[in-house]
Amino acid sequence: MILGLALAGVLLAWHRTRLRNRQLYQQLHHPTNRLSNHERLRYDRSEQRFRALLESLPRVAVQGYDRKRRVIYWNAASTQLYGYMPDEVMGCRFEELIIPEGMRESVIRAHQSWINEGVEIPASEMELVHKSGRSVAVFSHHVMLGQHTNNPLMFCVDVDLSVQKQAHRDLEFIRRYDPLTLLPNRAAFIAELNRLIEDENRHRAPLAVLFIDIENFSEINDSLGYDQGNHLLTQVAERLSQNSYTSDLLARFGNDEFIMACTHLDSRRHALQLIDRVNSMFELPFLLDGKPHHVTVSQGISLFPDNGEDAESLIYAANVARNRARLPGESRFQIFSHEFHRDLIYQHELLKRLENAIDHQELALHYQPQISRSGRIESMEALLRWFPTGGGMVSPSEFIPLAERFGLMGRLGSWSIEALCCQQARWKAQGLHGYRVDINLSGEHLRSTAMLEQLEKTMQRHQLSMRDIGIEITENVLVQADEAVKHHLQTLYHRGMKIAIDDFGTGYSSLAYLKQFPVTSLKIDRTFVKDSPQSLQDRAILAGIVFIGHRLGLEVIAEGVETSEQLEMVQELNVDLVQGFYFFRSMRAERITPLLETQPLFRGQHGASPRE
């Protein structure tokens, strides 16, 4: 607006000067005129200065039109903006040059209303037409000179908005699209899904929302680097796009998450067909760093209107189903059920109770003895238990996975380390020496330098040695171990701490871990012990593990021994320690103390076998 007013002043001054110059010109060319050459030059220079001023205005296109809308002036910026040279447009009507066909009648009426009735044409943004036919975005300001004369002139001052419009389009793209995959982002998907739901409501047509999560994306990122991780995401986006219908909505929802909305899916059978379609997209490997890599995904589906009637509800339901699909032991795809929602509410309530339990002394350590071949208690495993204030007990199989999912393992680990060291120091103060107690540590614990420092400082504070405390880790920890975990295990090993692999034999490459990681003990998984008396295959596996463990100089522990037949089997195979209900269930510390004080012999079916 300021630019338009300034130019209006320039044009008005130019118009008045032209009138004076025209009078001067007429005088100069009158037969009786005897003015000097100096006055002739003054006229020419005045005209040139104003033309030069208009021509020099950067990116400002100025056009002049007479009463009949014919072009009388066209500066260089107008040529650059609209593509016409001045000699192409002089005398032509401007509506035939740069006004879109649909606007021409209204523009002509507005021009006539200004001349005849004094109704000004307001400044505004508009889309005009280039010589090539493409649209040109401008901000146009209009000035009428000599309105009440026989020769009114209208000047249009057009500022090119192409750069601003492109910047706006770029910002709009950034706002609505993911810059890596070029798919719509979360906000755009939600907006489009709500629009689609409105359409489906009108036509009473069903639709489904599918949440897709790349399960092993973090491992690929960590092992191959972020560039290859990004390359995987672009390949996944391309594969999903190529195999989607035109009516489907597809977006990148999060770091390694994609989401689709598909119409005409109104039943479980149709939903399963959609899942099969997506699964088929991931059967072929993705090429990363020049090598093929297979990718696994978890999928969750929600159906409209059964699981929600707006975008947020459907996305939430699909996400709940996806999270259910990621749980151990579940299928990699799930269709939303209200049971999932109830379970989720229960889990969040349980999570709050667990946080409260840590702070209000509801946790306890129980100890399960490990019996040597001589029949004596050699060592123990410390097991975390939760006894809510209201009574009863929450199973570790219920709250440990919950703590792992929601980041509470650090707090549970800190509590357990302090409680274990305190109890072991109490036993030593009572003269009960030589009984190692092993504590279970997760990958999160071993990855944390602070956690390992706490373990060492707590042991020092209670005057415990590395012979007093050992650790147990699962094969899963080793599968996911990074350099930090390897370093911390090496440190503990070289300082003399016992390190046992729990549930040995259940992983994909158990033997490989014995070479890669410093371990001192193998705990044979109870699944091999359970059927060993009847199953030749399990017996052979059991014998093989014991043989390999002993050849490597490792202590071998059989856990889950519950019957005399199982005990006889593992004793025949010369396992070093036996742990299981046949001897003892896990017990409170005060129940363990008398056993450590009296040291009775436990010889299985041939001797006493107190159980609890």
Q: What are the main properties of this structure?
A:
alpha/beta; 612 residues; TIM Barrel; 23 helices; Beta-Lactamase; eight-stranded mixed barrel; 20% strand; single chain; five-stranded antiparallel beta sheet; 3 domains; Alpha-Beta Plaits
Quaternary status: single chain
Q: CATH superfamily name of the largest domain?
A: EAL domain
What is the helical fraction, as a range of percent? 40-55%
CATH class of the largest domain: Alpha Beta
Low confidence ranges: 15-35, 605-612
> For the terminal residues, how far apart are their CA atoms?
90 Å
Which helices and strands occur, and which strands form pairs?
Layout: H1 2-29, H2 37-56, E1 60-65, E2 71-74, H3 76-82, H4 86-89, H5 104-117, E3 124-129, E4 135-145, E5 153-160, H6 162-176, H7 186-203, E6 207-214, H8 217-224, H9 226-242, E7 249-252, E8 257-263, H10 268-281, E9 286-288, E10 291-293, E11 297-304, H11 311-326, E12 333-335, H12 338-359, E13 363-372, E14 377-386, H13 396-405, H14 409-429, E15 436-440, H15 443-447, H16 449-461, E16 469-474, H17 475-479, H18 483-494, E17 498-504, H19 510-516, E18 521-524, H20 526-530, H21 536-551, E19 555-559, H22 564-572, E20 577-579, H23 589-598
Parallel strand pairs: 11-12, 14-15, 15-16, 16-17, 17-18, 18-19, 19-20
Antiparallel strand pairs: 1-2, 1-5, 3-4, 4-5, 6-8, 6-11, 7-8, 9-10, 13-14, 13-20
What does the model show?
- The strands form 4 sheets. Strands 13-14-15-16-17-18-19-20 form an 8-stranded mixed beta barrel, surrounded by 5 helices.
- The termini are far apart.
- Strand 13 and strand 14 form a beta hairpin.
- The chain has 612 residues and is of the alpha/beta class.
- Helix content is 48%, strand content 20%.
- The chain contains 23 helices and 20 strands.
- The chain folds into 3 domains: 2-166, PAS domain (Beta-Lactamase, 2-Layer Sandwich), CATH 3.30.450.20; 177-336, Reverse transcriptase/Diguanylate cyclase domain (Alpha-Beta Plaits), CATH 3.30.70; 367-604, TIM Barrel.
- This is GGDEF domain-containing protein.
- It comes from Kushneria konosiri.
- Residues 46-101 form the PAS domain.
- Residues 347-600 form the EAL domain.
- Residues 205-338 form the GGDEF domain.
